[in-house]
Inverse folding.
């Protein structure tokens, strides 16, 4: 398995509130976590960095070879729940940080299977040479309106409330985590990203950028494209491939 990753503050923001980590347990088992912090200059940075550390530590401490699917799901749920508690409790004792939080998308890839947990609007996609499929469903106001048929896909693209999320790590005492398990073909690539990519680079542009199979270049290309298209937010990209 191969991992390439890049984070960038974009061309508008003064700081980068995204955070990520990647790791591997063997040539065939890798993991990553990507977070996008919110809550002011200090709060967003702290929330995302703390969540990434807690989740990474839990995965590294808990993963075992030959874990069953249900055990991996429980491990990811426990890791994200622990991060929620840490971020929430940290903000509770520092009034200037109250309300801070972070999105999260986290994946373990093993034996052509991807185990994905998420909260918020950071996303996971599966990309092949001729198709792109979004695996996660955004926890956002716009996605709720779209799911209920109140707006069209075209209206969702430029909705004024596009940045309002309905679920995030650290905002409340408890959190509901969504989990997906997907099969991967040998030529599939797993893409994890923050909305600094998904809001500025279309699916067709992602597919075009990743069509030549040069996996080592994908992260740089995607970040550069987001910046070329406006770069209005922090951008983080993680690419996992065989």
């Amino acid at each position: 398995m191969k991992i390439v990753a890049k984070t960038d503050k974009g061309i508008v923001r003064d700081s980068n509130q995204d955070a990520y980590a990647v790791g591997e347990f063997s040539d065939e088992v890798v993991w990553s976590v990507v977070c996008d912090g919110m809550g002011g200059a200090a709060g967003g940075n702290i929330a995302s960095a703390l969540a990434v550390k807690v989740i990474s530590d839990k995965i590294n401490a808990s993963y075992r070879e030959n874990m069953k699917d249900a055990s991996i799901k429980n491990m990811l749920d426990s890791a994200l729940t622990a991060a929620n508690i840490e971020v929430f409790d940290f903000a509770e004792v520092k009034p200037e940080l109250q309300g801070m939080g972070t999105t999260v998308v986290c994946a373990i890839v093993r034996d052509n299977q991807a185990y994905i947990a998420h909260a918020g609007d950071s996303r996971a996609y599966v990309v092949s040479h001729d198709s792109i499929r979004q695996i996660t469903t955004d926890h956002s106001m716009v996605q709720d309106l779209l799911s209920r048929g109140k707006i069209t896909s075209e209206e969702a693209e430029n909705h004024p409330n596009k940045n309002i999320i309905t679920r995030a790590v650290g905002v409340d005492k408890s959190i509901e985590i969504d989990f997906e398990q997907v099969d991967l073909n040998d030529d599939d690539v797993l893409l994890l990203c923050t909305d600094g990519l998904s809001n500025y680079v279309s699916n067709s542009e992602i597919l075009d950028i990743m069509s030549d199979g040069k996996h080592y270049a994908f992260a740089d290309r995607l970040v550069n494209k987001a910046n070329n298209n406006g770069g209005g937010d922090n951008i983080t990209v993680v690419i996992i491939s065989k």
User: Anything to note?
Assistant: The two ends are 4 Å apart (CA to CA). Residues 19 and 49 are 6 Å apart (CA to CA). Strands lie at 2-8, 18-26, 29-38, 101-110, 113-119, 123-127, 132-134, 178-183, 189-193, 235-241.
